[in-house]
């Protein structure tokens, strides 16, 4: 099945569907699979690019891999016994997504190169109206599965637009640029930088790292999965399920620990040992020692980051880049360097979801204008004034675990909502304002004592207003339990019994 060519076989489809899915990453693909399982074939998946893949299509930088073991970074209903490593590389994860799309026969529902420019709920037409670069689509339900990890953050640095060399973001990697013998500057030391820096370090003439904030980094228990292990996973599937369960337990213990600064200080000892063991130079070690409690920022894992930084051709400037003059880069502390190439490892818009600037509620208000920088919804999935609109990876639903834990919990919730709506003849569902307000008060109160809020750092979990509008403050057990059933009593519901439809249970 072709995944990278426009689907012409959909030209005879009507542009009204029961459900429209926006985005062809793992969240959107999962939604499509679950709709089919429920017996709903009247849906379309709109993908802006020429192939599916989401974050794993966008990021192709050297060393790109998952930082969650592949046994847990996959659908629970579609295990892959063929992973080559404990932590799967980018190309394998993307291939897995394609394989699952084929296995569940999703591609006939996909419209590639259809970018959603605007999605508006219309009370007059009683549906979502989605404007794309290739025409208009309408549907009773919309599942916005666009994800946060695809809109790169480009820093506002004086002189950046007039840099005399090459410059690109890590998620827009320029494979046509040979870095051999070049002077390279890397801005940022987050999850992407710790993967690509060790890959490019041996080739470049000089590598300068601009580190605004040092990171806590744990050792990464990565290794090849040998043929006998892969065979065991294939022929004894329960062994891979056991591995998935044990990995889930480890991540859940870290996720639980983040709720207690005292507990995270114990985890931090592992990261401190890792730093002491791999960095012998006391000056460099001091530069690389964070001044916040581990877990306040995303917890990173690498066996190669510290050794790369200790090499003779690498210099770490422990301050932010503030100005570029020609090919001279100047840090806030006055240090400077010359560079031929700048690589921006500056991450993505997380607390300010890009989709919010394209979604309009029933009052024709842009979601981003309503939020004013602080995203808010109910159960991280629905937003006031947006009937029948479901947001994957919505406000306050992120956890320190696999994205698939969130995806599958949300899909259980969303599918139960759609199932009940069709079965009972419900025309619209939207969050109840008072219940939503109480829920968000509980979320913010629970976050106050966590490391995310009290750990002493400025992270992408915290929005521009200083509010944590990103993280789920409780366990993933609680997340899955609360999303097991869609409770209609918590929502405003508009019935049209004559529209009731039979659905697969």
UniProtKB/TrEMBL annotation:
Domain of life: Bacteria
EC category name: oxidoreductase
Pfam families: Pyr_redox_3
InterPro entries on file: FAD-bind_Monooxygenase_sf (IPR051209), FAD/NAD-bd_sf (IPR036188)
A GO term, aspect molecular function: monooxygenase activity
Entry keyword annotation includes Oxidoreductase: yes
Keywords linked to the UniProt accession: Monooxygenase, Oxidoreductase
Protein name in the entry: Flavin-containing monooxygenase
The organism of origin for this protein: Acinetobacter sichuanensis
